[in-house]
Amino acid sequence: MTVQSGVKAAALTIGTSNTDTNNFQLRSNADGTATLARKSDGSGGDVLTIDGSGNVNLPVSVLQGGIAMPRMVLSTTKATTSGTSIDFTSIPSWVKKITVMFNAVSTNGTSNYLVRIGNTTFTATGYVSTMTYVNIGANSCTGDTDTTGFRLTKDTTAAVSFSGVMLICLLSNYVYVAGFNGIGEGERTFQGGGVLNLGSVLDRVSLTTVNGTDAFDAGSVNIMYEG
């Protein structure tokens, strides 16, 4: 459907009566867009907007006609240039999937990187986490396991940065599964995943290290969450 710019048409009412709460009005706006609103007088709120190119824009965080519209929120990027952990808290309870994005993250030490999740506090036990590490330059492959977090790296050094993406998804009944792919300097690649029965709804994600004392000194990290 294309709405021509400059065309102002009469509103089209869809429903049994103008007082019916299930009644909708499709109106053409002066700016060339069209809006579908709940109730003929528009008092029920906009359901969707169609721009001049025919693109349909749905409002986020709404429930219309019994169908939950997907919600997606990009958080604010945090610099990984100080501190022993980078935390994202106050994640809403409706979230089912979190994407964690790493850009050239490094620390001043050799402790490997972890991602932890939690509710109120960060959980540091009970993870089933496995990762593999391929050093193409050295023609070697190894791996590691961890129970204190979702492990990202192995044999890291202060000179090696990490970039990549991790997905954390709610499976069911507070069980969260994770998977990731990443790269490091010196022809290094990292892959892995894990699972944790958190026992409650996730509300936070943290990037830290195994020893918890190495300080971040470069890079950035961000999360995007969906529900």
Could you walk me through the main structural features you see in this protein, from its secondary elements to its overall organization?
The chain folds into two domains: 12-63, no CATH class; 72-226. The strands form four sheets. Strands 8, 9, 11, 14, 15, 17, 18, 19 and 21 form a nine-stranded antiparallel beta sheet that branches. A five-stranded antiparallel beta sheet has the order 1-2-3-4-5, with no helix packed on it. Strands 10, 12, 13, 16 and 20 form a five-stranded antiparallel beta sheet that branches. With 227 residues, the protein is mainly beta. Residues 1-20 and 61-66 have low confidence and may be disordered. A hairpin with a 1-residue loop joins strand 12 (113-119) and strand 13. The chain has strands at residues 12-14, 24-28, 34-38, 46-50, 56-57, 63-64, 67-68, 72-74, 78-79, 86-88, 97-107, 113-119, 121-122, 128-135, 140-146, 150-151, 162-172, 175-184, 188-197, 204-209, 216-226.
